[in-house]
Specification:
Layout lengths: L8 E5 L3 H5 L8 E11 L5 E9 L9 E4 L1 H6 L8 E4 L5 E3 L1
Antiparallel strand pairs: 1-2, 2-3, 3-5, 3-6, 4-5
Length: 95
C-alpha cells in the first residue's frame, strides 16, 4: 500500500464505532474514506486521521460535512444521493 496523502480518498475497511461497540473487529466492507491529516504518532511513525464517507443520512445530532456534487464527481463518488463525510467520534487513525 502506498502512503496516503492529505485530502486523498482511499478505500478502507472502516470499522464504525457502533460496530466496534458490538464486538466486531474489522469493517464490513471497503468504503471511500478521506485522509484528513497526517501526524507523527508517539512512536514517530506517521498516522493518518481518517473520516469515512457515506451516502447514508446523518443521525440526529451527528457532526458531518456534505460533500458538494462537483467534488463528489471529481473523486468519483457521485451517486443520486448526497455523500457525507462524518466528522464525529467515528474518526480513526490509520497506523
Amino acid at each position: 500500500m502506498t502512503e496516503p496523502g492529505h485530502g486523498q480518498i482511499i478505500l478502507y475497511s472502516y470499522l464504525w464505532a457502533r460496530e466496534y461497540d458490538r464486538g466486531e473487529e474489522s469493517g464490513r466492507k471497503a468504503r471511500p474514506t478521506c485522509v484528513m491529516l497526517i501526524v507523527a504518532g508517539k512512536n514517530g511513525r506517521k498516522q493518518a486521521l481518517l473520516f469515512p464517507i457515506t451516502s447514508q443520512p446523518p443521525r440526529p445530532g451527528a457532526h458531518y460535512v456534505e460533500i458538494p456534487e462537483t467534488e463528489a464527481r471529481r473523486a468519483t463518488l457521485f451517486t443520486p444521493r448526497p455523500r457525507n463525510r462524518r466528522k464525529s467520534e467515528d474518526a480513526r487513525y490509520l497506523n
